[in-house]
Specification:
Layout: H1 23-30, H2 38-50, H3 54-74, E1 80-84, H4 94-101, E2 106-111, H5 114-118, E3 131-136, H6 142-149, E4 160-164, H7 173-185, E5 192-198, H8 203-213, H9 225-230, E6 236-237, E7 243-244, E8 263-269
Parallel strand pairs: 1-2, 1-4, 2-3, 4-5
Antiparallel strand pairs: 5-8, 6-8, 7-8
Helix pairs in contact: 1-2, 3-4, 6-7
Length: 271
């Protein structure tokens, strides 16, 4: 794994708190994964009772990620990906999707969660032609992320930046905007942003999220459609723009009209 010799390391296991629910582990549970604890399953079940649609949102968010990465690799010609706020590995991670389209794709994952760090080995597979790397860094430090990512990616060439369900953990919208601007500001023309986040468009979802935030878990803030669209300011939006994730280029095999969910996303190109 990419690392600086001067950076002190500590045992990630000692940092894992299994006494309170954790959003990455809960999403892992909703997606059918096994990297979660009883406290996460209990919180996930309670959330689902309050808002049954949350499992559909988790799955739709993951499906949007897959479709957007395929678009970037196949149609936009992107061969480098920076996935910040990776979360726990599941099926079809960014590098697997990208390298199926373009085996020479290079992918860097970024997270600072000790549980994700424990499972990072699952992300460190690659085609012989490409590369996959994991770095431990903080979302709130775009300059450090870019500096470390440059060990694997050529930041003079276009990069696909992936931000999937992570910015809601930033307390203020202005702070989240600054993170997006800082990351995209260090990438060249032709780079793309793929982003999806939870929205406040469903009152039942808003109520369930508020209850979760008050449980002692790390809060996640739902934001308005306009705020999510604002993350793409200065970028050229790819059709159909910022929409509920189910409506972003749905698969042709999908049956019926896409169902609107409280998760919006889009893809934008840096001019």
């Amino acid at each position: 794994m990419t690392d600086d010799a001067s950076t002190p390391r500590s045992d990630p296991v000692s940092k894992i708190d299994t006494s309170v629910p954790h959003s990455a582990r809960i999403w892992n549970y909703w997606l059918g994964g096994k990297d979660n604890y009883e406290v996460d399953r209990a919180a996930g079940d309670a959330y689902r009772r309050a808002f049954p649609g949350i499992v559909d949102i988790a799955r739709a968010s993951r499906q949007f990620l897959a479709r957007s990465v395929r678009f970037l690799a196949r149609e936009a010609g992107i061969r480098q990906f920076l996935d910040v706020g990776t979360g726990l590995p599941t099926a079809d991670n960014t590098h697997q999707i990208a390298q199926r389209v373009a085996p020479d794709s290079r992918v860097v994952y970024v997270d600072n969660d000790p549980l994700v760090l424990m499972h990072a080995h699952a992300l460190l597979t690659s085609t012989p032609e490409g590369a996959t790397e994991y770095i431990e860094a903080d979302l709130r430090d775009p300059d450090e992320i870019l500096r470390r990512a440059a060990g694997t990616l050529d930041l003079s060439r276009p990069v696909g930046l992936i931000l999937s369900g992570i910015l809601g953990h930033v307390p203020t919208y202005e702070g989240a905007r600054d993170i997006v601007s800082g990351l995209m500001g260090g990438l060249p023309s032709g780079s793309h942003l793929s982003l999806n986040e939870g929205t406040d468009t469903d009152d039942v979802y808003v109520s369930a999220q508020q209850e979760y935030n008050e449980s002692g878990a790390i809060p996640y803030r739902l934001r308005t459609m306009d705020e999510i669209a604002g993350y793409f300011d200065g970028l050229e939006l790819v059709e159909p723009g910022v929409v509920p994730v189910t409506r972003w280029r749905p698969e042709l095999a999908a049956i019926g009209e896409p169902q609107d969910l409280g998760q919006a996303g889009g893809v934008g190109r840096k001019p």
